[in-house]
């Protein structure tokens, strides 16, 4: 309810396993009357539903019938994986891939979903080693909270590099890789060039 007051969305999609569950969620969140109900049978075939049930039973994942790009990773810690299903356009035509989104929530049957701050440090350190122009990391601080992580870095850069462009690319890579590897949002990343490394000249 706090998030609803903050973001004031124009539309909300409620996912439930029954009409009663959906109505109860809407009531508990003090939402207006549900305006439209879409049943799984309206958007998925029997074969797709069987696949979803099997994945739910064997892997503990929930299959939601919407394209992946429609689901933003606003809820940090949720794992969004694409499930590609081949569909046929008809006899004699090439099949195409229909992509579904699989969400495995943090409160799944496997227990709480937690990631150590040391994991983020190791990812950042690895990327720094692979980034031309960054000689080494001098200091790193990771703060984890409900919405994601905040990262502060002090680095030593190598003499002769374009500091601004290099650190921008590095920040972009950190956000991308942490999102891909951990599904956590990087809410803020600050990189400070603290020192310059000047290689010794050879005689």
Describe the structure.
The chain has 203 residues and is α+β, with helices and mostly antiparallel strands. The protein has six helices and six strands. The chain has helices spanning 2-7, 19-28, 40-43, 46-59, 117-130, 163-182, and strands at residues 62-64, 79-87, 96-104, 134-145, 148-158, 186-197. The strands form two sheets. The protein has a three-stranded antiparallel sheet, with helices on one face. Helix 5 (117-130) crosses helix 6 (163-182). The termini are far apart. Residues 68-73 and 106-110 have low confidence and may be disordered.
Briefly say what this structure is.
The chain contains six helices and six strands. The chain has 203 residues and is α+β, with helices and mostly antiparallel strands. A three-stranded antiparallel beta sheet has the order 1-3-2, covered by helices on one side.
Pick out its properties.
203 residues; alpha+beta; Alpha-Beta Plaits; 2 domains; 3-stranded antiparallel sheet; 6 strands; 33% helix; elongated
Tell me about the biggest sheet?
3 strands, antiparallel
Determine the structural class based on helices, strands and strand pairing. Answer: alpha+beta
Number of helices: 6
Supply the number of structural domains. 2
Q: Give the spatial strand order of the biggest sheet.
A: 1-3-2
Residues in helices, as a percent range: 25-40%
- Spans with pLDDT under 50 lasting ≥5 residues? 68-73, 106-110
Q: What is the gyration radius calculated from CA atoms?
A: 23 Å
List the secondary-structure elements in sequence, H or E.
HHHHEEEHEEHE
Beta-strand content bin: 25-35%
Envelope shape:
elongated
Which whole number gives the mean pLDDT?
Answer: 78
Number of strands: 6
Q: Tell me the span between the first and last alpha carbons.
A: 68 Å
